[in-house]
Amino acid sequence: MKWGVVTFPGSLDDRDTLHALREVMGQEAVSLWHKDQSLGGAQCVVLPGGFSYGDYLRCGAIARFSPIMRSIARFAGDGGLVMGICNGFQILCEAHLLPGALTRNRSLSFICERVTLRVENSHTPFTRAARQGELLRLPIKHGEGLYVAPEEELRQMEERGQVLLRYVGADGVPSDAANPNGSTRAIAGVANQRFNVFGLMPHPEHAAEPMLGGEDGLRIFQSIIESAG
Amino acid sequence: MSRPVALPGEPPVDHDLAAAHGLTRDEFDRIRALLGRTPTYTELGVFSVMWSEHCSYKSSRRHLRMMPARGERVVQGPGENAGAIDVGDGWLAVFKIESHNHPSFVEPYQGAATGVGGILRDIFTMGARPVASMDSLKFGSFDHPRTRYLLSGVVAGIGGYGNCVGVPTVAGETMFDPAYNANILVNAFCLGLVRRGELLSARASGVGNPVLYVGSATGRDGIHGASLLASAEFHATSESKRPTVQVGDPFTEKLLIEACLEAAKTGAIVAIQDMGAAGLTSSSSEMAGRGGLGIELDLDRVPLREPGLTPYEILLSESQERMLIVAARGRVGELEGIFTKWDLHAVEIGRITDDRRWRVRAGGKVVADIPVAALTDDAPLYDRPAAPPPKPATAPRTTAAAPSASEALRALLASPNVASKRWIFRQYDSIVQSNTVVGPGGDAAVLRIKGTHRGLALTVDSNPRACAIDPYLGAVATVCEAAINVAAAGARPAGITNCLNYGNPERPEIMWQFIRGVEGIRDAALAFDAPVVSGNVSFYNETEGRAIPPTPTIAVVGLLDDFHQRVTQFFSHPGDLVLIVRTGRPQLAASEYASLFGPDGDALGPIDLARERALAEGLVDAAQAGLISSCHDVSDGGLAVALAEACFNPEGPLGAELALAPGFDTARELFGEGRSTVVLSAPLESVVRLTERFRTAGLEVIAGGRVTRPTRLRIGSVIDEDLLELREIYERALPGRIGDR
Questions:
Q1: Considering only CB atoms, which chain A residues are within 8 Å of B448?
Q2: Closest CA to B312 of B17, B15, B1, B16
Q3: pTM
């Protein structure tokens, strides 16, 4: 399949995502410049991690106004697959393509570490290659990953299965100690109601090779390939 | 020759004004002799920064020449913005370490952040993509009221900048000691990769070539950072120097990295240099000086953050994220296009001339006209007197009751110098760019080079306590420690960069410490055949007349033919045998044990460099042959701590047992430091070969250890501890001191 990876000014993991897709998975992937309108014929568009525009205002608050975001909103509206990783997740929330918002970590500091995640809904285009309840080890690296949404909205999201990933301990159970950033309901990744837009704070592209943090991240990319195929 | 004009409102230039600029009476007279007239106020400012210790290396230059800078792999030695070595498969590694001590003490967040930003620019100005950062930090005691504030600020600053530019911070070291209460150290390292043949230079060429200003606009920040902040001692009033600290903008730096690397590919860049210390002045005069040419600048064209900056301010500003480029004639438009794409300024502000003069215009008038050489090669060069200090009275031996081995181990693991630095390094992105095979927390970081099997091992070390006792042996020991760290990971030490932090060089005992330190680095670098390709000197690290201990910080870059052969420090297979291989008996002098439980001896015995090298070679061979399961360098805290650390495998802790020979001097053997020692684990079938290999090389091998599944650490009859408890002590110590959850 064909992937598109957006580069905003200040994007950092765009090159890493392209590396994982092209070199590790042998996928066709094009780099998309934020000032362009074209999505290059991509079947899935990835908004990568980083600090778009320095994130001096609110994470993702400026990037959502980049010209390419109009194309992405249209693409998502037509049912196209969109995934936002870390800063990409923040941008998708700012653009109202995903519910909720990401605020400063409970510790108020940046955290880079490997965490354990539980797949909460394996019946989506982004998780179908994983088993329901499967545990994945992925790295996080962010200062603003504390997920929040109105209580009523959270309840509905849970009912509809929009929470795809949750932070858990090694035993597979959520706990305060296993929640790295204090996210509400230990939420690490959510989808929209149509299940074609997905945002997650952990970085699957940094868990794509055995010598560099394991291969659990491939589950996410494989799911998308199966869905598009 | 045009005579520069004084501008309205400028103060008269005399000896007093020169002294206020940090210039001595002799230096001011020399400036007048070189110019054949009295400098203008603007020119005086320019001389004061270019002749500052920070920019001119006037006290250190003649001694630095003794360090080995040549070698088969060396592509660029000292003299450019950074050094470069050939790492194979067409790749060059470009690296350097630099201090940002005083700014970080005055304003910890911005001081540390701009330290990172500055060293990054030294790397990408060479055309290399920065791929890894490291930091060496020294703070005062936790009992000092400012330590927590400085630690939190510096760590947040390093993370705030490094994380935002997308360069992983992969390793580092942090020490707490009362000797740094009033003068912390922040030394920042960066390494970049560039294809062979694509290395850029900071040597101007081509008379008539245009000079391009790119990056951020110029503001009033950082004026006199190089001269008044970096090249003077500290006093109680040093807080008032806060305006001399620059303010960083990592987002602009990220754009500048991408734009410069894209511009480098065009071949339109003749020369390029960061506007770092002394900003526009140093970058323009140094590039012209290296090329033996002149340069003309028109300050009216410089992008400014606010109107009304004087020529003096524009020339001395240390605003961050700016570069100066000498472009090939006729290709300015092409470069402008690239920088504009990245939303950055790119303005032609001058041209290269053949008259070897540094000429600056503003408002249509010449405001400075100085021979380039007067700012660069003809800057003062001092052979300052050096003399050893009078020998201090021998430190009294401790009379306190010695702790038990178990008590000592627990106390050491809880010491902030030994304890886990996770609280620090988890605030740094250590994995961006997808090259980090081994990240922070071990002996050395290991990176892969994409598209090849090659790996790089990186480490940064210092040993101020040993240097305080003997500045020569301490420097030797520091290089050995760093070299053995990369060898423990399976990498051959290939290149060194150093940051030499000392007190006031105008004092003979400081100058003596410095020279002895350089001699130590020279001897050890020669022994490992690892040339010193770049470096930085930071003098005047003293407050109210009290200097820091001599602190040469050494970063070593090692090479792995195949990064899959990297070795980590963690025991991984129950049943593996444990070997201790060392170049000599450890000693308690200068150890963490001695700092906790009282001084014990003040003499460092000689270091056998042939054995140190043999150990490094033996470790690399063993890694390549796949003989060992793990290897951990013994450092702060000694052997018992190293054994415990080897058990703390993040994939699941294991245990270890070690039998002790009769007549073992427990404290010295288990907690001593100062001689290179490694803890290896290996399967039974490798052990005979390993033992023979190391013994033949003249190294001491101690057998009698084993990796166990039960998570206990048992050493002879003196230590029997639950490793999960020890790990808790080790992990909780630093957050506990900081007061974090």
A1: 211-212
A2: B17
A3: 0.95
